[in-house]
Design a protein that fits this description.
alpha+beta, single chain, elongated
Length: about 60
């Protein structure tokens, strides 16, 4: 169950990054703080990579 939640959260994070390229905004907002769109994308991309890494680690330990 935890593996599937990790996978879903990783996909949501990646969709959020791809959505920012279609949105054409100059700023992003996390927890009420506005920031440069590239910093926003970096944060979400790092989060997605971390979640996918955790998912792959969980997947390899269950085999």
């Amino acid at each position: 169950m935890k593996k599937s939640i990790s996978l879903i959260l990783g996909v949501i994070a990646m969709v959020n990054v791809f959505y920012t390229f279609n949105n054409n905004s100059e700023t992003g907002e996390i927890f009420g703080f506005e920031m440069n769109i590239w910093v926003y994308r970096l944060i979400w991309s790092t989060l997605a990579v971390g979640i996918f890494y955790d998912y792959s680690k969980k997947k390899s330990t269950t085999k």
